[in-house]
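#data-curation
PF: Archiving a pair of folding outputs for the training set. Convention for this channel: one message per protein, sequence first, structure tokens after, nothing in between. First:
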Amino acid sequence: MADDTAGSPPSMPYWHVYTDPGGVSRQKRFHLTQFELKGIDPQTAPQWNDKLAPAQAAVTFTVLPVGWVGEWHENPRPQWIAVLTGRWFVETMDGHRVEMGPGELMFGEDQNTRPRDGRKGHLSGTVGSEPCTMMVTGLLVEPTVNQPGRFK
């Protein structure tokens, strides 16, 4: 078996939906890069971990039905969204639309946007002919403004 722990630390892509100083939501792709090779206990083989600051969180498993569209809205709190099955899209106020599928990760942090041309926050919905299942981890933290890629 090959040694998967050799070499440089990995990076993990994620989309960050954030609010700019003018109150407009935007999204950009970044990478988690602060991985450390360490076992979770002395009996466990080393694995790559990128530990974020501790925070209280609430986990919700979500199933978006086929044809679902969540009209313009802000994320209820800063939250990590991991797509498990199916596909969905997120369109931010700047007009940037991203489609995501299984294994893709997004950090939703578009709180404190300002209404503009009938838009506030983001528009999202399912893509294709199957539901989109997700694991949503909402963090009980204060949202940031204009800190795109703050976990890189």
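PF: Second:
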Amino acid sequence: MQVGIERCSVVVPTVGRPSLDVLLDALAAAPGPRPAELVLVDDRPTGAPLQPDRPGLPPVRVVRTGGGGPARARNLGWRTARTEWIAFLDDDVVPDPDWYQRLAEDLAALPADVAGSQGRVRVPLPEGRRPTDWERGTAGLATSSWITADLAYRRAALATVGGFDERFPRAFREDSDLALRVMDTGARLTRGTRWITHPVRPVDRWVSLRVQAGNADDVLMRRLHGADWRERADAPLGRRPQHLAVTAAGVAALGLAAARRPRAAAVAALAWAAGTAEFAWARIAPGPRDRAEVTTMLATSTAIPPLATWHFVRGIVRHRRVRPWRGLPDLVLFDRDGTLVRDYPYNGDPALVTPVPGAREAVDALRARGVRVGVVSNQSGVARGLITRAQVDACMARLEELLGPFDTIQVCPHGPDDGCACRKPAPGMVKAACAELDVAPARCVVIGDIAADVDAAAAAGASSIMVPTPVTRKSEVAAAPRRAATLTDAVGAVLAGEW
């Protein structure tokens, strides 16, 4: 089946760098059909709203994370999009003029087992002189695999694996981790024909020290994907073994000196100095060798080995035990009476719809992270003749006035003896909500106050969290697989990935 570009959303996480304007200008000027929308994810903790409006852009939507890092920003972007494909671009790249056309061609008629298509990257280096150490490092993006500077994924593939692992706090390894998890499902990733230019971003002279924090992320990659993760992700080892050896020599020299063993200390110090000098020359030799570059390389080459080792050890300690990333659910369904609002039996009066403490904040917290929300409610009062369906609908409308709009509302008007497939603990309403929103039940959580809510979730293949009330039977509470004291706690557990 052909995939038109109108079935694709473009997601750009940004921290408001000036390069964003260059990217937006390129997207506005490019010819050809536009994607369904451009989602700008503002990852700044604070700041004035972005002003992306300019003629020629696709429909633009701006969402904010409040500051959470690139993985969380990309997750919010794709979760709020509703198209079949999600194309990620970094905010410091410049797409070629034919990028829209090439993207459409890259995605057209891809077989179902292809979950992603990577664009091609060029990194312009200065003419007339050798590149600096930072420029050479950036140039490595041109040959890197599965980087989200330009990578389009099927939305369904992202949902299946829970998106980007937000335990990767930097723009480093989070894209490789995602690619490996997607390929672990049996899907394939391909390379397309579209191109972007990735300019070398201006940095200060100490940037090479800050990037050493990525050594901790490499530990997480090994914990998650095994010892062969580098081969699978096409990620070279680099100089970590040498950094460990140089650091060990330096520590040994200090220890031996403190132990008053001067000859052994001198040998260790000589090994440290030789290793440090070799590292510095390896960085200086291919570069411009001007005074600024040489002094920077000498200073940072002394600090990098122990700093890299420190972050590596920090990663070992921090990531002693890790679980596979599950991410956030795609949908959270709430029981109404006793869970979202106080339970007035067979209520048909909108004036009595009273949210429980923290209900609005809890539901809004899910919306803010791109998780869709819905209601699944038994209303047997209709079958019993105690209330009308119009009264039920009026109460639901009042609920949305108080708590904001829900993506789906499912109501069962039948009685306990009607034998319907929708009344909880039957799974009908949960399945119907998932089908309406094209969500796999395994990516859905049901939050309710009684066993019927928990059992409906289990029967549908969804997860559940029980929030008991004083009238919930103790046997039901004991049998629930997951429990929370309050609605706020239940939603907090969902947002923490504990579902």
